[in-house]
């Protein structure tokens, strides 16, 4: 198992080096007008101590834009390894500070969605498989297809129209109510939690469809296996067949799938956060991208790359843990 883990870590490290290089090449070949605009803005601020030419030179040197692609890449990576990602041009604070201020909102939103996704999707998928071609199966299948097909902006708009415009139960967007400043600490917590309800429902509805279908498909495959038919022929109670034999083997692919989605808790839901003005990492990255915030954009792309590789690594390791055949091979 140690050999397997070491091999996977080496593969992930090599892939990350090439992915980071592609990110830098992408930023390197963007029109230079972005850096020139930022240098002009910094030079024109009240009390500025540097001229436009000096700011332009500093910015190009900071991100290695004044060197070749390969040499500039190593300059950027060297600074990144030391934790120096530069200052955000939009948020006017260090990139890592803005990341720390926003990522936990995304984590809370993602964690709520992840927990309810498991609680709702897996039991419904199992019920649909146990009662194939019944009303429960058809209902689950249709609901899963609708969940997979719904665009995020459409579902969010419908929820806001019904619960915010018509019923008035929630604010249309934002993270705080108008009286947030006058509330007690616990009241502030409840106010923020109240504003997270609609975004959470949006993410839950959109995410449970895929896991529901995946659970149903794997459960059906297991229920049609020879050892399940043998257990039933021997008179084993149906409850034991489902809960002890079938479900345990169904969980093998599910564990790897869920393990791979864990890093997604930190990546943010860009569209959902933007639609509901939840200032998570997705919302911050969107505003940084549309305003050509190169430092934050480079950091976010590198962060997403690391999370993706980490998700694949977790899936591989979990699969090796739950299935001995992977370790033996």
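^ structure tokens above, recovered residues below v
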């Amino acid at each position: 198992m140690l050999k397997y883990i070491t091999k996977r870590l080496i593969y992930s490290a090599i892939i990350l080096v090439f992915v980071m290089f592609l990110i830098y090449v992408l930023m390197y070949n963007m029109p230079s007008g972005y850096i020139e605009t930022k240098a002009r803005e910094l030079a024109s601020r009240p009390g500025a101590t540097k001229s436009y030419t000096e700011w332009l030179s500093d910015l190009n040197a900071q991100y290695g834009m004044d060197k070749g692609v390969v040499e500039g890449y190593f300059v950027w990576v060297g600074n990144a390894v030391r934790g120096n990602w530069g200052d955000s041009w939009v948020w006017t604070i260090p990139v890592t500070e803005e990341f720390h201020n926003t990522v936990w909102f995304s984590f809370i939103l993602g964690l709520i969605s992840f927990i309810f996704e498991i609680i709702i999707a897996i039991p419904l998928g199992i019920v649909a498989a146990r009662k194939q071609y019944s009303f429960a199966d058809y209902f689950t299948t249709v609901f899963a297809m609708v969940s997979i097909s719904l665009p995020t902006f459409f579902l969010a708009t419908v929820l806001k129209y019904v619960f915010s415009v018509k019923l008035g139960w929630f604010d249309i967007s934002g993270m705080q109510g108008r009286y947030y400043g006058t509330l007690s600490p616990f009241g502030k917590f409840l106010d923020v939690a109240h504003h997270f309800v609609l975004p959470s429902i949006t993410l839950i509805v959109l995410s449970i469809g895929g896991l529901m279908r995946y659970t149903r498909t794997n459960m059906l495959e297991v229920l049609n296996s020879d050892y399940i038919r043998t257990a039933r022929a021997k008179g084993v109670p149906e409850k034991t067949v489902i809960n002890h034999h079938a479900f345990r083997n169904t969980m093998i692919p599910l564990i790897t799938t869920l393990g791979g989605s864990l890093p997604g808790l930190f990546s943010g839901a860009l569209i959902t956060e933007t639609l509901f003005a939840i200032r998570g990492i997705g919302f911050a990255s969107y505003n940084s991208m549309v305003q050509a915030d190169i430092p934050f954009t480079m950091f976010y792309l590198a962060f997403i790359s690391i999370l993706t590789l980490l998700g694949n690594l977790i899936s591989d390791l979990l699969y090796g843990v739950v299935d001995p055949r992977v370790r033996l091979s």
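The mean pLDDT is 83.
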